[in-house]
Amino acid sequence: MDHQQRRATGTSGTTPSSERTETPATWFEAGLRLLQAGQLAQAEQCGRQALTIDQGHADSLHLMGLLCVASKQYDLAIEWFAMAIRQKGDVADYFVNLGMALHRKERFDEAIKCYDRALMLNPDQIEIWLRMAELLQHQERFDEAIKAFDRAVTLDNARADIWYRMGEILQQQKRVDEALLSFDQALKVKPDHREAANASGLLYFETKRYEDALARFSRSAEIDPTQAGAFNFISRCQWPLRRYEEALASVRKAHEVAPDSPEITRNVGLLLQGLSRHEEAMVWLEKALALRPDFPQALNDRSVSLMALRRIDEAFADIDRAIALDPECPDYRWNRSMAQLLVGNFDDGWQGREWGRKSTVLVFEDRKFEAPHWFGEKPIADKTILLHSDEGLGDTIQFSRYAAMVAKLGARVILEVEAPLQALLTGLEGVSLCLPKNAELPAFDLHCPIGGLPLAFKTRLDTIPASPSCIAPLPQARLSAWQDRLGVHDRLRVGLVWSGNPLHTNDRNRSTSLRQMSSIFDDRARFYSLQKAPRPEDKAALSERSDVIDLTEYLTDFVETAALISHLDLVITVDTSVAHLAATLGRPTWILLPHTPDYRWLLDRDDSPWYPSVRLFRQDERRNYDSALACVREALGALIGAFKA
C-alpha cells in the first residue's frame, strides 16, 4: 500500500483520514496513540509524516525521542529531545524525558540539570521530584535526595509508595527514627503495604524495640500469612519479651510455612535450646543439617546442646567443623574458647576468647586506641598502661586482681571501669589512677582490656591468682553505719540475690525467684535482700514477707553493698556481680549455678579456683534449682546449728 492509499484508508482510525485536514498535530496525536498501544513502527511513520509537513514541530520531535527511548536508542533520543527543546523550551515533559535519556547514558550531572529545569517549569509535578530523588540517590547525594522525596510527599501525602521509598533512603543513611516514621506512614496510608510493615518491623527489631517490632511483623503476617520470614521474626521478638512459649509456637508456624528452610528449622532448635530442652533441640538441629550438611551455624548451635548434654567430644567435633567451614567467623571461635575454658583448657581458651572482640554481635567493646594492645608479649617497665573494662560488672571485679600483677612488671597502671565500680576499685593495689568510663584519659603507652589479662599472664588452672581481697579497705564510716543499722548479731546473717540482669542472654537459666529461694528460709537466721531492682512479681512477694529484711534503699553504690556484705556471715546468690563482689571480699559465698554454667565456674566441682571462699550449688539434669536449693537448705541448717553469737 503506497502513501496515497494509506492517507485514504487510515490505519484502524489511528492515522488522519482523507476527510480531515492533515496537520502536524493530527499526525502527532495519531503517533502518540500508536506509541501508547505499543505499535512503534506505525507511530514512527506518523511522527515522520508530521515532520515532513513541519520539520520544526516540537511535539513530533519529542515523540521521535520517546520512540527511541522505547527501543533503547538513548543517544538518538537525546538528539530528538534536544531538537524539541530548541523549538519549544517551556515544556517540562521535554526536559524530564531528556533527563531520563541522559540518566540511562550515565550522564548524571546533565540529567540533574534537566530535572531542575523541568521543576522550574512545573514545580508541582510529583513524578519529576521522584525522578530527581532517584537520580540524586544514585549519585549518593543523599540529603538532596531526601529533600526531593520530602517535596514529593508534601505534594501528595496519601501515596504510600513515596513514603516507603523515602523510608528506604533514610534507613540507608541510618536516620532510623525518621525512616520509621516514613515506613509507618506508608503503612497508615496503605494498611496492606506488606513491605512497609516488614521494613518498619526490622528497624524496630534492630533497635531492640521488640513490642513495636512485634506489632509490625504481626501486621505483615495478617497481610500475607504465607510469609515464613514474618512468623520467624515474630518469634524473635517474643523471645526477648520473655514470651517463650509463644515464641516457640511462632517459629513452628514459620516452619509449617517453609518446612524446607534450613534457617527456620535451625531456629526451632535454637528456641528449644534457649528453653534448656536440649534433647529436642538436637532433633531440629539435625534436621537443619540434613537439609544443609555444610551449615556452620547449625553445627555451632548443635555443639552448644551437645556440651549441655555433656557429650563433650562430640561438641568439639561440631564446633571444629563449623570453624573449618567458616574459619573467619569470630562467633564460632568464641564459642569454642568458652567450651575450652569450661573444661579447664585455659591454654587454648584464653587465646580463642580474643575472637570475641571481632564479633559484630558478641560480647566485647573493642576500643580503638592509637596505643598498641599489650597481651604480655613485651616488657612494660617504665611504661604507662591503660587497663579498661570490656565486659560486665562481675567480670571487671573478677579480673581486677591482675592490676597488681601488671604494676609489679614496672608499669604505671591506669584503670578505667564502669562508673558504678569506680569508687569501689579506687585504691586497688597497683593502680595509680582509677577513672570511670567516658572520662578524659591521660596519655598512655599501651592498653589491655581487663578480660585480656588472663591471656597476658598465660593463666592456667594451677596459676590462677586467687589471693585474698585486692580491694582497698572500705571507709570506716560506712562500715560503722551498717553495724549500727544491722544491730545485734545474735543470729546468722545471710544475704540473698535471686536474679540477675533480665537482659542477659542466659537470664532465664541463671535467675530464679524469691518464692523459689524461700524454700531455704530458716527462722534461726536473718535474711537480708541484696537484690537491686527486683522484678514485679518478686517485689510483690518481698512486700508480703516479714522474714526477709530489705535494706536495698541504702545500697546506693557498690561501696555500700560491700560494706553491708562485710557484716554478713554468708551470701547466697545466683551468678551475678554480687557473687563476685562477695567472693572478692573473701566472704563465704554460695553460688547457685545453671546446669551449664558460665565458663569460670568449670564443670562438676563445688569449689572455685578463682575464689577460695566460694561454694557452688549446681542444677542437676532437670535444669531447675529444686535440687540445688535442697542442698543449700541442708548446708545452711548445718551452718546455723554451728553459729555462735
Written account of the structure:
With about 650 residues, the chain is α/β, with parallel strands linked by helices. Strand 6, helix 29 and strand 7 form a beta-alpha-beta unit. The termini are far apart.
Class computed from helices, strands and strand pairing: alpha/beta
CATH topology of the largest domain: Serine Threonine Protein Phosphatase 5, Tetratricopeptide repeat
Mean pLDDT: 91
* Count of spatially separate domains: 3
Instruction: Calculate the terminal CA-CA distance, rounded to whole Å.
Output: 123 Å
| Strand composition percent | 5-15%
**Oligomer description:** single chain
Q: Mind summarizing the main beta sheet?
A: 7 strands, mixed
Beta strand count: 11
Number of helices: 32
Q: What's the CATH superfamily of the largest domain, by name?
A: Tetratricopeptide repeat domain
Report low-confidence residues grouped into runs of 5 or more: 1-13
CATH class of the largest domain: Mainly Alpha
Helix content: 40-55%
Which CATH architecture of the largest domain would you pick? Alpha Horseshoe
C-alpha Rg (nearest Å): 36 Å
Lateral strand order in the biggest sheet:
7-6-5-8-9-11-10
- Overall, the morphology is elongated
